[in-house]
Amino acid sequence: MHKIRLAIFYQKFIYILRFFYENYKNKIAISTTAVILFLGLFQSCSQEKIEATVFVRKTSSGYELVRNGKIFLIKGTSGNSNFKELKKAGGNTIRIYDTTNLVQTLDEADKAGLAVILDIPIPRYIVPDSVYANNSQMNRLFEDIRAFVIKYKNHPALLYWMLGNELKAPDLPGDDNFYDNFNKLVRLVKETDHNHPVSTAVGGFDRSRILSINHKVNNLDLLSINIFGELSTFGSRKKLIYPLWHGPYVFSEFGVNGPWEAEQTLWNSPIEQTSTKKAEQYKNRYEKYIKTLDDGRFLGSLTFYWGHKQERTHTWFSFFSETGKRTQAVFEMESLWKNQERTFLGPRINYVLLNGKGAQESIILNSNEKVNTQLLLADNQSSSQFKTRWEIRPENWNYLHYGEEAKPAPINNLFLSSGSTKSSFISPMKEGPYRLFVYVEDNKEFHATANVPFYVLNPNNE
């Protein structure tokens, strides 16, 4: 225990030295920086804006988000559809990324009784930087964002502004072009709209980036954190930087492990869990790591993703099917938001096998090979209750993180037979990576999904 305390003290000491060194190098008064570091607060939170529609209030025990005069704990998700279902499930907030048809989207959210965290899209910081060092581009960006904020600032659904999503802000000592201009953007939004807080979303619990933003960005009201697999270690890692950052925060995205965190095949295709396993993970993570948060700084959380979304696959994060069928994750989040104990009676999948093998075995097939599949449902569920559909799609091989993804189309005429728990198909002729998808639907509102990646080798290199 003594060694652990020494290690923690040493790490905190190194963080402090690092910040002092940065300020010395830039000829900033160390005494002033020390006050900022040990206060560890976003400046705007120290001034209570009683007149604002929404604001972050400093209290004796921490922080709280106030909306229309009442304390507001965020319980919601992200997406741009199924608003009525979200409200019915007990959610109160939706994060909107897509700014197309935004007036209609905001109106629909307001009609459903939801608050909106509205993203303001701005370019990510990429080395070499061609945006934040370019005065003409920045001037256009200032004008565009001012017009955007003016247009939507008085909408009654608006909760707070999200200025950029996972911008990849540079670590200390940082790029002055980026931080100077980002501070101007924050200031612009706040001067244009005095009624709503301003935040930015950080990808993962990157302590160095969080400390850099906290040190370099002057006027954010709260920090938004997109966190997935790292949620399990958030509490312990947060304590290590407490002397330098102890401001308010929101989990602006949380969920199951992302493709970048998942186990992979030999050809680097991520292995996706069944929708059943993902629903269990949502429930466990919420109960263990979110519901128990009581640090005086936590202002709420948003699941990811309330709708249908292609991100490495079209089922990885999707709470709904293309036709509106719900996954078990919707059921579990409703139970959690409403604090109810319920048993899910819809379809549940244990796993799928190809020629008796699971996804972890990196299945490699020859082209034009006959393959047999097997679906195993959970808890001895009878397949006669459900409808099963099988399909094969190419792997999204040209995937780029943060890039827009096109959903590969299914390949027709491969299946020889397709039953409720078994099927057979002929593997594609073209060499490359693929996935077998299976969908199990009940006759009401739910569906379950699973997929298995496999690779086809063509001896003739076709």
User: Would you list the SSEs in sequence order as H and E?
Assistant: HHEEEEHEHEHEHEHEHEHEHEEEEEEEE
CA-to-CA gap between the ends? 61 Å
Content of β-strand: 25-35%
Which parts are unreliable, with pLDDT below 50 for 5 consecutive residues or more? 1-50
Number of helices: 10
Into how many domains do the coordinates divide?
Answer: 3
Largest sheet: 8 strands, parallel, barrel
**What kind of assembly state do the chains in view correspond to?**
single chain
Q: Largest beta sheet: what is the strand line-up?
A: 4-5-6-7-8-9-10-11
Structural category is alpha/beta
CATH arch. level architecture of the largest domain:
Alpha-Beta Barrel
Q: Give a count of the beta strands, DSSP E runs of length 2 or more.
A: 19
Mean of all residue-level pLDDT scores = 89
Going by CATH, the homologous superfamily of the largest domain would be Glycosidases
Domain Glycoside hydrolase family 2 catalytic: 83-203
Protein name: Glycoside hydrolase family 2 catalytic domain-containing protein
InterPro entries: GH (IPR017853), Glyco_hydro_2_cat (IPR006103)
GO molecular function: hydrolase activity, hydrolyzing O-glycosyl compounds
